[in-house]
Amino acid sequence: MFSKSGPAVPELVDKCIGSRIHIVMKNDKEIVGTLLGFDDFVNMVLEDVTEFEITPEGRRITKLDQILLNGNNITMLIPGGEGPEV
Amino acid sequence: MSLRKQTPSDFLKQIIGRPVVVKLNSGVDYRGVLACLDGYMNIAVEQTEEYVNGQLKNKYGDAFLRGNNDSRMYRRYCKMSTIQDLALAKNRSIFMGGDNSREV
Questions:
Q1: How far lies A83's CA from each of A23, A53, A60, in Å?
Q2: Mean of the pLDDT values across residues B12-31?
Q3: For A28-70, what is each residue's pLDDT tens digit?
Q4: CB-based contact A71:A41 (threshold 8 Å)
Q5: Cβ of A27 and B25 within 8 Å?
Q6: Using CA atoms, how far apart are residues B100 and B35, in angstroms rounded to an integer?
Q7: Domain named Sm: which ranges (chain A) (predicted)?
Q8: In the predicted model, what is the mean pLDDT of residues B45-55?
Q9: What share of chain B is helix, strand, coil (3-state, %, to 5)?
Q10: B19 to each of A10, A22, A78, B8, B36, how far by Cα in Å?
């Protein structure tokens, strides 16, 4: 009745390893970085990271070397994305 | 450019003992030396500084930050009591509760 071969999220994310990826969070935050790895919960290890915070005063941009991003609050992954328009 | 595949658990083993910043959804940052953590992302940090909106607000000798991976929710409460016991055992520690979500 239901097809077993639906979209396999881990396979899709694995294709992005080594490339730039743009991550949109549930709150007003977006992250752009190079994907080094991830786990079953799609917690992600990223390097050369730029963090965009969308605040009423404007955007706050931070640069980070390597981060572990908790997958709990990820809404969307955009492979090869460059982030929100500055 | 070192581009070898690195899972989150590899990353965490690599950074234990190093200075880290733990950013919570609430906008609070904790800077200190990573002492240890577990599979639920409960984190213990030493020599911790608490930054709210970029401003230093507090300093703690030891801080325990509760992780909140919902996929193991049924075990979360057991894990919490263990961390709480550890926190109570150390006089100069504080325990950070809540699910780290920002109030909207």
A1: 8, 11, 13
A2: 90
A3: 889 999 999 999 889 999 999 998 887 776 666 677 789 999 9
A4: yes
A5: yes
A6: 20
A7: 8-83
A8: 90
A9: 25, 40, 35
A10: 30, 26, 30, 17, 12
Chain B: which residues have CB within 8 Å of chain A? 3-12, 25, 41, 68-71, 102, 104
Q: What angle do CA A40, A45, A47 make, to 5 degrees?
A: 160
Query: Which H/E stretch holds residue B74?
Result: helix B73-89
Residue A28: name the closest of B69, B44, B104 by CA.
B104
B10: chain A residues, CB-CB within 8 Å: 37, 45
pTM for this predicted structure: 0.73
First CA to last CA distance, chain A: 47
Residue B101 has φ and ψ, to the nearest 5°, of: -85, 150
Distance between CA atoms of residues A16 and B97, nearest Å: 35
Beta carbons of A52 and A81 less than 8 angstroms apart: no
Distance from CA of A20 to the nearest CA of B (A): 12
Task: Report CA Rg, chain A.
Answer: 14
**Residues from chain A contacting residue B41 (CB–CB below 8 Å):** 43, 70
The chain B residue lying nearest A29, using CA atoms, is B25
